[in-house]
Design goal:
Layout (H helix, E strand, L loop, with lengths): L1 H16 L4 H31 L3 H12 L12 H11 L28 H9 L14 H6 L1 H18 L31
Helix pairs in contact: 1-2, 2-3, 5-7
Length: 197
Amino acid sequence: MLIGFCVAWEYCKKVKSDPLNLNLQIDLKYTQRMVKSHISKYKKTQGENALSSNDMRAAWKFIKQATNLKTTTTKPSVSLDDLNKHFAHNSSSTAPENWSGNVASCSIQNGFSLQVMSTQSISHQLLRINGKTSTGPDGLPAKFLKKTAVAIAPNIAKIFNTSIVSGRFPDSWKQANITAIYGQKSGNCTKRVPRNF
């Protein structure tokens, strides 16, 4: 790969010195494509190695590099605590006050059950994702999930099915990114008033 890069660099110098030489321009474009191809193959090999190893840190590092994930935070114009208090005050629960949230038993006739998911169904659903949607709490772009659907579907199926069979769902699956949308509802049109969201 380094040799190809050096050859491309030499062609660049030659084309600069003789810009009208068509053969040099063709050779330069060919060499540039070869270097780009070698870089792509190298990245693919690195990714395959990272994803197939048992080192989850290396796998996630590769995924973040491949998708250019950068965590950026912007300071909200209204206090998050104020927004939380506002929405908690204005919403209500339909559950009885003495309900603990635990179900003691559930008959099949009156209840529901989750079925094991096939790799094909997960792949199909991933391919249907709108690639323009924003990321969730995991930070994985929808476009990335859609592009890698066939490759990651078996692993996702294993994770989902293990969770379904064991009856345990990770806390991270219960999280969502929520964005308050400014609506200018009151006479005081400022983003510092929670009721304007």
